[in-house]
Amino acid sequence: MTTSRDRLTLHAPGFGSFTSFGSLALPSELNRLAALNSTATYSGQIVGVVNNGGTQGFATGSYSNTWRFGPRNGIATITFDNTTYGGGSTPNTFQVGRSPLFTSTTPLSSTSGRTAEVIGVFQSNNQSASTQAGAVIVNGTNYKGVGLFSANR
To answer: Which residues pair with 24 in a beta bridge?
Structure first.
């Protein structure tokens, strides 16, 4: 069982590195929240880069994930470069085993025909699993994008 804490450092080419808001959540913290059948809503921002038909630029957006610790899944809604992905009432992000890692197992759809994939981690900063941080990868016809997110509950 892991009992030490690691820090997550995100590297963005051209932007340098930054350490996000906390240490990786311990499996014991996530197990305790699961046993209590806790829920949390995480909200935050996304910043990234896109290649839209050969035109490169920066893009921003929002990230929200309503997480249910008991079944270890959540419903993510992502808005990036003026397009919304995911949402609804069916879980679309899932914890990987008992680790602090979560991911979308299938791409999140949008009305634009683009899809987004999510990979992230739970972090603890004074409270168990107080933050989610990670990356969003967007694909579409003649469109590619990647963004980094950090969201607090």
So the answer is: 123
Q: Is residue 89 part of a domain?
A: yes
Does residue 1 lie in a domain region? no
Confidence grade of residue 148 (pLDDT, cut at 50, 70, 90)? very high
On the 0-12 / 13-18 / 19+ scale of CB atoms within 10 A, 153 is middle
Q: Which CATH number fits the domain that encloses residue 62?
A: 2.40.160.90
Question: Is 29 contained in some domain?
Answer: yes
Total number of domains in the chain: 1
List Cα–Cα distances, 48 to 19, 22, 60, 79, 136, in angstroms: 16, 21, 6, 12, 9
Cβ neighbours of 1 (radius 10 Å): 7
pLDDT classification of 4: cutoffs 50, 70, 90: very low
Statement: residue 6 has pLDDT above 80 = no
pLDDT over threshold 90, residue 33: yes
Burial class of 25 by CB neighbour count within 10 A (0 to 12, 13 to 18, 19+): buried
Angle (nearest 5°) at CA 87 between 47 and 20: 35
Residue 138 sits in which domain range? 21-152
